[in-house]
Amino acid sequence: MSKIAVFASGNGSNFQSIVESSKEYDYNVDILVCNQANAFVIERANSLGIETYIFNHKDYKDRSIYEKEIINYLKVRDVKLIVLAGYMRLLSKTFLDEYEGRIINIHPSMLPDYPGINSIEDAYNDKASNIGVTIFYVDSGVDTGKIIEQSGFTIVNKSLEKVRQMTHELEHELYPKTIQKVLEEQ
Ligand code: GAR
Question: Cα separation of 70 and 72, whole Å?
């Protein structure tokens, strides 16, 4: 059974689906790492009985200092894969080098289209032919790493609300499955 760490900063619906789906797969969520003490994802972790590592990035002079602390913490726990799920901080070279090829992220668009924020709304307002979800290996850019999995649907005849809902449902289905696949290929 491989241990994974999920990094999140906000709502945590993906975190919850990853934890709940893990029963069907060969991994378990060992720890939630969160940089926002008041994020809803922490309440979810408490209800699901998952340990949390909470820090405030503003307490540190630079990124690599808090990342070194996180690395030391994760090493002791023997975490095999870092899963970003709405983690709103870039990772520095320190972290990327330590976990090279073992950090993945999810984004609500058909990358390379619509990276960054407001992707669903922007794609919708542009009447993009396809909207969807991308899972990719993390590099130093914003939503730029090598694509692992992508799945999309047409936005024709759908409200923005419907598109948003379908995107999140797709994320919750695709991410746990892809985590399992990435672990098997390691
Ligand atoms: C998800 O839609 C995820 O794709 C997105 O943040 C949301 C987090 O939702 N990530 C990015 O935009 C990464 N660039 P959640 O907190 O409910 O899981």
Answer: 5
**Spacing, Cα 86 to ligand 1 middle (Å):** 4
Ligand 1 lining (C-beta closer than 6 Å)? 8, 10-15, 85-86, 106-108, 143, 171
Residues 29-83: pLDDT tens digits?
999 999 999 999 999 999 999 999 999 999 999 999 999 999 999 999 999 999 9
Atom in ligand 1 nearest the alpha carbon of residue 40 = 16
Told to judge if 57 belongs to the known catalytic residues of this protein, a careful annotator would answer no
Buried b or exposed e, range 140-164, using 16+ CB within 10 angstroms:
eeebebeebbbebeebeeeeeeebb
pLDDT at 130 over 90: no
What is the pTM (predicted TM-score) of this model?
Answer: 0.97
Q: Where are the domains of the chain?
A: 2-106+135-147+175-185
In whole numbers, what is the pLDDT of the chain averaged over residues? 96
Q: Which fold has domain 2-106+135-147+175-185?
A: Rossmann fold (3.40.50)
Q: Which atom of ligand 1 is nearest to the CA of 143?
A: 14
Extract the tokens encoding 8: 């999140």
